[in-house]
Amino acid sequence: MFVIGEKIVYPMHGAGIIEEIEEKLILGESRKYYILKVPFGDMKIMIPVDSSNDIGVRSIISVDEIDAVMDILSAGSSEMSNNWNRRYRENMEKLKTGDIYSVAEVVRNLMRTDREKKLSTGEKKMLSNAKQILVSEIILVKEIDPEAAEEIINKSV
């Protein structure tokens, strides 16, 4: 179980800091929830404590692991399907894992694809979401502002 003040990652939403652990009555069921504050925007996320492992909630990576993320961003692109629908599904599966290295791979591949040929609307939205997930974790690991985190990504790809 995580504690108040801990920095965690919620797959598909990004990293944040646990502000509270609250008991809430929702649809007649009382459960404990982590109240996660993300480092950009004014968003708070409620995550059920009892299913946090099942949905892939994890602690943020260490400062040392950021170098491996940067290596992935600067490495060659992965082999991707030419069919945008298949490519979208494959990338969505990677994002759902919550694994920072998979997220970095999706960001790298989509940013490069967007430079070569424009992405579909769905893939542009996916790139934006994946980038936000990556930015949120870099912000918390390196303790920098969102603009600096985004610049790190842009320079690495």
Compact summary:
With 157 residues, the chain is α+β, with helices and mostly antiparallel strands. Helices cover 48% and strands 21% of the residues.
Plain-language structure description:
The chain has two domains: 7-59, Thrombin, subunit H (Beta Barrel); 63-156, CarD-like, C-terminal domain (Methane Monooxygenase Hydroxylase, Chain G, domain 1, Up-down Bundle), CATH 1.20.58. The protein is globular, with a radius of gyration of 16 Å. Helix 1 (63-74) packs parallel to helix 3 (100-116), helix 3 crosses helix 4 and helix 4 (121-142) crosses helix 5. A five-stranded antiparallel sheet has the order 4-3-2-1-5. The chain contains five helices and five strands. With 157 residues, it is α+β, with helices and mostly antiparallel strands. A hairpin with a 6-residue loop joins strand 3 and strand 4.
* CATH topology group of the largest domain: Methane Monooxygenase Hydroxylase, Chain G, domain 1
Helix share, percent: 40-55%
Q: Work out the helix count.
A: 5
Distance between the termini: 35 Å
Largest sheet: 5 strands, antiparallel
Structural class: alpha+beta
* Topology, number of strands: 5
CATH architecture of the largest domain: Up-down Bundle
Order of SSEs: EEEEEHHHHH
Sheet with most strands: strand arrangement: 4-3-2-1-5
Strand content: 15-25%
Shape: globular
Indicate the mean pLDDT.
93
